[in-house]
Amino acid sequence: MRKNFWIAIPILGILLIVSAMMIAAQDTAEPRPQVVQGVFATLPDVVPEPEDNPSTPEKILLGQMLYFEPRLSSSGIISCHTCHNLSLGGTDRLPTSLGHNFQTGGRNAPTVLNAAFFDLQFWDARATGLEEQAEGPIQASVEMNQPADIAVERIASIQGYLPYFEAAFPGEENPLTFENIVRAIAAFERTLITPNDGLDRYLRGETDALSEDARRGMEIVVQVGCVACHNGAMLSTGNLMRFNHGDDVGRATVTGEDSDEYLFRVATWRNISLTAPYFHDGSAETLDEAIRTMASVQLNRELTDDEVYYILAFLNSLVGEMPEVTIPALPAD
Amino acid sequence: MRKNFWIAIPILGILLIVSAMMIAAQDTAEPRPQVVQGVFATLPDVVPEPEDNPSTPEKILLGQMLYFEPRLSSSGIISCHTCHNLSLGGTDRLPTSLGHNFQTGGRNAPTVLNAAFFDLQFWDARATGLEEQAEGPIQASVEMNQPADIAVERIASIQGYLPYFEAAFPGEENPLTFENIVRAIAAFERTLITPNDGLDRYLRGETDALSEDARRGMEIVVQVGCVACHNGAMLSTGNLMRFNHGDDVGRATVTGEDSDEYLFRVATWRNISLTAPYFHDGSAETLDEAIRTMASVQLNRELTDDEVYYILAFLNSLVGEMPEVTIPALPAD
Predict the structure, then answer these.
(1) How far, in Å, are A18, A145, A158, A168, A327 from residue A161 at the CA level?
(2) Closest to A57 in 3D by CA, of A231, A241, A187, A175
(3) Which end of chain A is more exposed for a tag (fewer CB within 10 A), N or C?
(4) How many CA atoms lie within 13 A of B68 on its CB side?
(5) Which chain B residues are Cβ-neighbours of A332 within 8 angstroms?
(6) Do the Cβ atoms of B266 and B235 come closer than 8 Å?
(7) How confident is the model at residue B23 (pLDDT cuts 50, 70, 90)?
(8) How far apart are CA A157 and CA A161, in angstroms?
(9) Any chain B CB within 8 A of the CB of A333?
(10) CB pair distance less than 8 Å for A333 and B82
């Protein structure tokens, strides 16, 4: 008995250590799905649309045409697709966009991909909904530089367009309006959705849809607190948060209120590895740099190289299935 | 007998007149196909390609990516597709193109559609073949403004490209070269073909593929002599012809030879109704105007409104089936 007792103690000790190691290994290598349930969510199957602009195939087709229509710009060479390029993750991959007369815009073009899931549009939330968003760049002098009435006149001068407007907005006496132009564009944009990225599949139970490194990264962004802002289906609250970085005062440029200074809409993490450079001013050239800067400025934390490595693995797994879009034929003048 | 004779004369006369009317009606309303056999030809089924650049699916895919690649330009927003826009009949529908820094180019962008069937490229024939053509706009300071070595460096800096070059140019030690960039683009452009327009189908025996008006127009362009230059499968010889119109001296800008003054490559009529404005300087806003000017300057003939109407009907029938092109996903930086 006594002898057995003395043997049992080290055996028990070893068992305890091994168990602890196994638990530790499990914690780091395979975070249980419940860690992220309630933090992240899969991309919804249904895209929200406003009551006064229900999508129809005809409206989506017209919207696709107008999205690629350079004659919506005064120069005739800039379309929505110039800055929200579907070859480039729905952006232009420039720090800030080049528009009319090669003027430089003030901010980095946010991706059009999944933008349908945001209510607030633009970095400073100056528009609500895709329809209102689309009104901006067409008319902005540094972007497409075409006043609304001239845009309508230009499109109406292309005779082939009228049947498409009539089909998209049946029963309207005069369907060719600026309001309907942006409605059609918004309807098309609601098809630019990228489901089934690694996280979506992981959340649906496909455990190996995320690599071990990516799962470790997912744990870290939860632990260090990135998910305070980057959560939900868009990995973004979609709301304004303070980011005091550079000269741009964000929301305050719209409202003039001191309390709105440096408020910017939280960027989505979906397809983030496709949309460098980063931040409202495009000042972070790489995702690595963006991760470190955000942790430092927002969370007052210097990440280790290992932590950055794992977070990168997680963010790189957030590329979904790209929509397949065919170049539309546009009517002749 | 005598009585019958006097009756027979007017009957014979009437028969003769009716026959003449029937022949006349047939001549104007239904020109026999042999009128145009030997003048025009259907678009060939096989696209010619140079021996040292055979097309493969891998090369075409890479070429499609590079055709839409704005990072081939120094600004990062201009691609081949900017000026040779497949939504707009393979052109930009501008008098002369807008390029880097919104500089205006000197000439109207010729369509990329069916350009594979031309040996001589550019209005002044300064390149032979699509490969040599593609070298120009990438480097031209008023177009994409990217020197060849910088273009290669830029594309090579995007790591995702290398596997595509390796697949397109198997066995090459260093496949990522400027020569291969333009080879791939040319291979893609050889897929931008628009078969089965009205004339193609008419020539294959589908008599009603051309309207009565279009057939009348076809007769007129043969009769007045347009077909001296606008003939064959491209409805263009593809060679240089003198067109003394405006200040641009055409081929002489390349050679400096007086004898080359005002020589320009004959424009194709295929899809011509999609590619306004017209001429090397884009000075003719409409096809109507272009038809009248060409007849006047080249054939010293003022066309009647009726003649222009019928020629327009013929030219409008020359729109073929557009290639269906999907927006390619381009690798991230």
Answers:
(1) 72, 21, 6, 11, 16
(2) A187
(3) N
(4) 24
(5) 89, 93, 273-274, 276
(6) no
(7) very low
(8) 9
(9) yes
(10) no
Q: Which CATH class is domain A32-45+195-316?
A: mainly alpha
Q: Which residues of chain A have a CB within 8 Å of the CB of B65?
A: 87
CATH number of B31-45+195-316: 1.10.760.10
- The amino acid at B280: H
In this predicted model, what pLDDT tens digit does every residue of A92-150 receive, in sequence order? 999 999 999 999 999 999 999 999 999 999 999 999 999 999 999 999 999 999 999 99
Find the residue in A nearest to B326 (Cα): A326
Who contacts B302 (Cβ-Cβ below 8 Å, separation ≥6)? B292, B295, B296
> Which residues lie closer than 8 Å to B139 by C-beta, 6 or more apart?
B145, B146, B147, B148, B151
Separation of alpha carbons B73 and B147, rounded Å: 9
Q: Transcribe A87-133 into DSSP letters.
A: GGTTB--SSS-B-GGGPBPSSPPPP-TTGGG-SEESTT--EEHHHHH
| Structural Rg of chain A based on CA atoms | 24
Chain-centroid distance of CA A326 in Å reads 22
Q: Using the predicted structure, report yes or no on whether residue A213 has a pLDDT greater than 60.
A: yes
- Beta-bridged to residue A91, according to DSSP, are A85
Which CATH number among 1.10.760.10, 1.10.10.10, 2.60.120.460, 3.40.50.720 corresponds to the domain A57-189? 1.10.760.10
Q: Is the sign of the CA dihedral A227, A214, A47, A127 positive or negative?
A: positive
Calculate what percentage of chain B has a pLDDT beyond 90: 88
The span from the CA of B280 to the CA of B282, in Å, is 6
What single letter denotes the amino acid at residue B148? A
Which backbone phi and psi does B78 adopt, to 5 degrees? Answer: -110, 125
Among all residues of chain A, which has the CA nearest to that of B319?
A332
Question: Tokens for B110?
Answer: 């010729």
**Considering chain B, what percentage of its residues have pLDDT values greater than 70?**
89
> What residues of A act catalytically?
143
pLDDT at residue A18, as a whole number? 45
Q: Do domains A32-45+195-316 and A57-189 have the same CATH topology?
A: yes
The Cβ of residue A162 has, within 10 Å, a number of other Cβ atoms equal to 14
What pTM did the predictor assign? 0.88
Inter-chain contact B332–A87, Cβ cutoff 8 Å? no
- Please give the Cα distance from B276 to A306 (Å, whole number): 58
Written as six digits, the tokens of A259 are 């309390």
- Rounded CA-CA distance B21/B210 in Å is 23
- Residue A156: per-residue pLDDT: 98
**Cα distance between the two ends of chain A:** 101
Q: Can you give the residue ranges of every domain in chain B?
A: 31-45+195-316, 57-189
Alpha carbon of residue A328 to chain centroid: 24
Is the sign of the CA dihedral B218, B222, B225, B230 positive or negative? positive
Interchain CB contact of A76 with B (< 8 Å):
yes
Contact B273 A332 (CB under 8 A): yes
